[in-house]
Design brief:
Jelly Rolls, mainly beta, Trefoil (Acidic Fibroblast Growth Factor, subunit A)
Amino acid sequence: MHSHRQGFGSRQPRIAGQTGSNQSQSVVKLVLTLVAISLLLLGGVVSIPAASSADASRNWAADNGNGTYSNPLFYEEFEDPDPIRVGDDYYLASTTMHMNPAVILMHSKDLVNWELAGYCTNKLDLGPEYRLEGGNIYGRGIWAPCIRHHDGMFYVLANVNGAGLMVYRSKSIQGPWEWNQLPGRHDMSVLFDDDGKIYIISGANSPYPIDELAPDLKSFIPDAHHQLAGRMGEGHHLYKINGKYVDVSAMPGGAVDQMVAVADSIGGPWKVEHMVQGESLGVTSVTPARAQPNDCGLWLHQGGMVDTPSGELWCIIMSDHGSAGRMVSLVPVTWDNGFPLIGLPGNLRKAPNTWIKPNTGYSQEPKPAFVHDDNFDSGKLNPLWQWNHVPDDSKWSLTEKAGVLRLHSLPASNFWSARNSLCQRPPGPESIMTVEMDTTGMMAGDTAGLGLLSTPYAWIGVVKTADGATLEMFQGSGGGGRRGGAAASGSAPALGSTNPPSHLWLRVACNFDTDKAILSWSADGRQFAPLGNPFTMTFQLTTFQGVRPSLFNFNTAGQPGGYADFDNYTVDEPRARGVEREIPSGKTITLTSGADGSFLAASTQSNVLVNVAADSTQATTPDVRFRVVDLGKGRVALKAANDRFVSAAEDGVTLKDLAGKAPGDAESFQWINLMRGDTMLMSLVNHRYLASKPNAPGPVTATATGPSPARKGGAEFRWKIVE
């Protein structure tokens, strides 16, 4: 309905090189018919089970099921995204830092529903510290990948901090991948130009060097240098769009913007503009409960662009989300005055949190990208697992005892330095991780259990000594400092049962709205008792990641010890399809402002929309009641008690008698879902939001450009069904 409302009135410029040759498209189609990937992971061939539509009721899926989607794309950490299109298929690469397998790759047909395609390498092993032997690579490792497709070949380039630039190549997104190494380039991006030249831009300070790569991407071409002069930042993404050279990059930090530079020639001169400005999507800079009205939030600031066969242009872009880590959002791009800008006409450099799905020519039901559970029965790990640093494959097994993960302990002084800790990303906004553990095989000096890897970190588990076993909850630190940190430390553990049952359950419940985690245990898998104080989770620059639930077993006696068996790892997501997804279509509701509790109301005398104080007489009349009329694709009309419709036009927000006609653009509002139960109403006339002025009853406007992270701006509402 009304396709022009998406803000793409004409065909958008096409990104050169993002559509593949017939040969490459045939390869892609062949790949997509395979049931299992030929990726060696930790000694075995791993198949990637596809999530089903039914899983969308239990696991986060961005697709709302009504033709719209809501950000984030994945409600879990996914850093430094870089997307491409090859024919009718989309691919996405992301940072993995010190985790193994390394460089995660995703596939999609519609840019909203994604699935894991694999990784570029099973083990990033470039020396002892990559294996947690005599050091660590926390917060370093491999990051900011650039994915490209050229002449039937996929390329992924990613820098390894202090080691160099890795160049991976494969004819299939699922591998196998070959690689070569080049001198390091910080936050680089590559462009295969249509004249056969290959450019690479990098750096974090102006002027930014633009070098040329040899055709085989195994060397740089001497004396072939260009540069981009301008205030751009880091995290480059280089393109050629309709003959124009385009680079987008982010200013370093959390509450920072993304910039865009455009030039007619690779050598410039370059014109620079803000691509997105001050857009938080309602994400606070602190935990939501502590957010103040002046909280500017954490902004969209690093991501790449991708086009669709229909000519639309989109950006997948990152922002910080507290202790859960950095997450990505899908946002529309509008070409304006010679620049690709994030946003919609009338509200550029801002982005909707809920919007119409891209026109990719492909339709599917909502499907989560990630289902984290693992019962270890298949003989293969769920491919979402990643090892903290490079594992010792001789010290873990899925076959020594069928149906369980067995972790043999290795020497370590603490959880921070323990090898073979098996990790996942925890989904938000809440997640509950539970695992069954058998300690029969543990020996003196062993410590095994379920932890949250970060700094500070926490774990709950069993400590075995010569005198017996103790259930403990421990909070410690990996040390301060950027990218790696000092030696780990901690205080006295919280002690639980002495000689607990050898068969027990451990649980970590994370709430990323509060950044609090509760660690608990059970003797029967049904009744859980917390141990120790709630743990405060943080995002920090030592690991450069959010917290990671981890299964672990290490020995503090300085030698290998026994083993612990883990089974039935489950991840519950209580709010995967919460109130944020509901639209009260056909119901009569009230709408109250999160800023001051005032009601939206119909002023029947002047036929305008106003807000009235919660304690006013009018707040108890039918004037504050509106019938929600479903217009499809997540769009609604609001019908007042006098049968007039709320209408947003240039002269303000009025009540309009449609005389039996269907609501038009002025009467149509995109129902925008924010998390935590807040709702915004976007006018399809100017892509701005209905807003009242806090603590000042009066006319309502359609002028708000986006949400207040603290939900105190006057454009964020809570709805309640009254009939």
